[in-house]
Amino acid sequence: MRYSPLLLGLAGCMSAMDMTTDSAADSGGDSGADTAELAPLEACGYTAMPDLDPADGAVEVNLTASALAWDPGTGVPLEGGMAFNGSVPGPVLEATLGDRVTVHFTNDTAMEMSLHWHGLRVTPEVDGIQQMMGDPIEPGESFDYTFTLQDAGFYWFHTHMDTATTIEAGLYAPIVVHAPGEVKPDCDLPVVLDDVLLDEDTLQIAPPDTSMMQLMGRLGTVLMMNGRNDRRVAWTKGQTTLLRLVNASNARYWDVYLEGHQLTVVGTDGGFLAEPYPVDDLVIAPGERYMVAVEATGEPGQSYRLMNKRVQLHEEGGDMIEVDPLGNGENPVATFVYGEGEVTGTGWTPPTPDVPAWGAPVANVGHHWLLAEDMMGGTVSIDGASWPDVPMVDVAQNVDTTFEVENSSEMHHPFHIHGNRFQMVEVGGVAVPASQGWKDTFDVPPRTTVKLVSALDNPGEWMYHCHILEHADKGMAGLMTVE
Q1: Would 106 disulfide with which of 78, 142, 210, 293, CB 3.0-4.6 Å?
Q2: In the predicted model, what is the mean pLDDT of residues 365-369?
Q3: In angstroms, rounded to a whole number, what is the distance separating the alpha carbons of residues 231 and 245?
Q4: Distance between CA 242 and CA 251 in Å, rounded?
Q5: Domain with CATH 2.60.40.420 in the chain
């Protein structure tokens, strides 16, 4: 599939003279903000971590986790904040399929640390789980993570100890893995969606709440794109932007749309799709990723907002309904502002996908997981137990295997499986289109069973868990051995 013309090259190519403010924008997406209060206009794109190794096929970076009082756009720095390399989100880890990546990590915080490379098929030794289970990176210590990239696409990394606290504080960052010879669009923009729960009086990160929040999930009061709630990104008419979207929220499901623009989904968790498809809005579960192409069709001076609609986590008519501090309506996240000029060119084509072969469950069933909650007892469980007492799942390597994830509760659960990649084939008995790509994180709706298939080609001991971070920390997790 081709997209409209491109000649600009990558982000950052947009000069200051091409950028105009949107104080008098003629747009259905006018935010209504006072001109004096508008955040600076940013070029569309990203800055990657510096590569210390000039050799082809190798990427070497330095990464430090430290305390940082960062401002989510409220004007009040968060004294309990943390960051990778001094920014929230951390800078992009950029590499190419097949590269050998070395991350020299230093823990400059007061907490024990372990990093997880979410979605990457690494070896168990560097997945972050073994450290979490017994050999964490202590304050002041360093550790080298080394792995070879097996998949192109969009991923992210984050802490994997005390995740509800450390990810809320800001310890997460995107990973962009290019295919060899990949043609870049006008703008390649990683978009980390997150929310942070602030105390209404101090505007500081609210302390962990009662056990009820651990059951319901932590919903924030401030929505952010790339660490702020007021970002303004410069666009030019005619360009194509590839939005790489990841939901880094503790519990919030996002339902995003862009005023006045069509979104075309060109990729999911594990890479690009054979058959892109248009959407008006897109629901993204915590931990999940989508790559979306957007044609810039606006006129100079216009601005359009990226918006989020509320997603209710509990089913209608159930015993519990969570209260969203942002209400039940729609809320702006960021603004895209059109500068002067127009771009023309030959068009952008997504890279050739690595599409799975399955379109239906296979005969070999590896495991049937049962997700459950006991609101009265204050527990969440998998297969009738909580971490670390969930029974081990043992499956054979290099055998096409069906897995079933049954959600017996009245709440959505985003399910994440480490180490291997999967294709969803059925949701609630309804077949998923065979053209869909690889997944490692997916929504399991209330009272619903999801079926997925994997070739299980990456051996080792792998964690699986609910990606509502409060649920994972409370024990909704287990281990699977592929051998």
Answers
A1: 142
A2: 97
A3: 15
A4: 25
A5: 16-342, 365-482
Please choose, from the candidates 255, 265, 267, the residue with its C-alpha nearest in 3D space to the C-alpha of residue 439. 267
Q: Give the residue from 463, 362, 451, 376 showing the smallest Cα distance to 407.
A: 451
pLDDT band of residue 434 (cuts 50, 70, 90) is: confident
- State in words which class domain 365-482 has: mainly beta
pLDDT score at 357: 82
Give the C-alpha separation, 387 to 383, whole Å.
11
Instruction: Classify strands 401-407 and 448-454 as parallel, antiparallel or unpaired.
Output: antiparallel
φ/ψ (deg, to 5) at 178: -85, 150
> How would residue 296 be classed by pLDDT, with cut points 50, 70 and 90?
very high
Residue 23, pLDDT > 70, answer no
> CA 288 to CA 277: how far, in whole Å?
18
**Nearest by Cα to 445 from 389, 405, 473:** 405
**pLDDT(336) > 70:** yes
In whole angstroms, how large is the CA radius of gyration of the chain? 22
The answer to whether 193 touches 229, Cβ cutoff 8 Å, is no
Least confident of 121-125, 127-131, 147-151: 127-131
> Taking the model in full, what pTM does it have?
0.92
Cβ contacts of 95 within 8 Å, gap of 6 or more: 59, 101, 149, 175, 176, 177, 178
CA distance 280 to 349: 21
Tokens representing 445? 């709706």
Name the CATH architecture for the domain at 16-342: Sandwich (2.60)
Phi, psi of 275 (to 5 degrees): -130, 90
The amino acid that residue 259 corresponds to is E
Read off φ and ψ for residue 193, nearest 5 degrees. Answer: -95, 130
Residue type, 156: W
From the list 364, 217, 247, the residue with the least C-alpha distance to 308 is 247
Q: Tell me, letter by letter, the H, E, C secondary structure of 379-412.
A: EEEECCECCCCCCCEEECCCCCEEEEEEECCCEC
Contact between 110 and 193 (Cβ < 8 Å): no
* Percent of the chain that is helix, strand, coil (3-state, to 5): 5, 45, 50
Per-residue pLDDT reduced to its tens digit, 50-98: 999 999 999 999 999 999 999 999 999 999 999 999 999 999 999 999 9
Residue 282 tokens, joined:
């897109």
Q: Where are the beta strands (DSSP E) in 218-325?
A: 222-225, 232-237, 240-247, 254-258, 263-268, 271-279, 282-284, 289-295, 303-309
